[in-house]
């Protein structure tokens, strides 16, 4: 079992920045991949960013160039730096652990990001 706790969400103005954190209850170097997903009202949950233990990184086209995923293995924490935020980025953001690349996913509770004037 692995527990994930997101933090850092809140209300920001368009063009602003926010950094989300995901604290993981086990050594993240042993996890195949960590990712951030989001779900906006009326929309399906979608992949935002993903990083593997080998540091292969994928981003959704909608956030490419604006968001950066990173990890601190010593702190067992994964981050999502979000810059140039847009109203369409408003969503609940979820941290995800893909333990072995065999579909054994674990999820955090989510943190709400609202981008509005």
Description of the molecule:
The strands form 2 sheets. Strands 2, 4, 5, 6, 9, 10 and 11 form a 7-stranded mixed β-sheet that branches. The mean pLDDT is 96. The protein has no helices and 11 strands. 0% of the residues lie in helices and 50% in strands. With 117 residues, it is mainly β.
TL;DR?
The protein has 117 residues and is mostly beta strands. The chain has strands at residues 4-7, 10-12, 18-24, 33-39, 46-52, 57-59, 67-72, 77-82, 91-98, 105-107, 111-115.
Which features does this protein show?
single chain; 117 residues; mainly beta; seven-stranded mixed β-sheet; four-stranded antiparallel β-sheet; 11 strands; 0% helix; globular
Instruction: Give the integer mean of the pLDDT values.
Output: 96
**How many strand elements?**
11
Distance between the termini: 40 Å
Round the Cα radius of gyration to an integer and report it: 13 Å
């Amino acid at each position: 079992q692995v527990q994930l706790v997101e933090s850092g969400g809140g209300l920001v103005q368009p063009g602003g920045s926010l950094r989300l954190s995901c604290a993981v209850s086990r050594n993240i170097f042993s996890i195949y991949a960590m990712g951030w997903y989001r779900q906006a009202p009326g929309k399906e949950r979608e992949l935002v960013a993903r990083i593997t233990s080998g540091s292969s990184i994928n981003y959704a086209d909608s956030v490419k160039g604006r968001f950066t995923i990173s990890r601190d293995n010593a702190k067992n924490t994964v981050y999502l730096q979000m810059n140039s935020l847009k109203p369409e980025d408003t969503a609940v953001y979820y941290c995800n652990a893909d333990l072995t690349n065999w579909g054994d996913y674990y999820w955090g509770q989510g943190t709400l990001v609202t981008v509005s004037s």
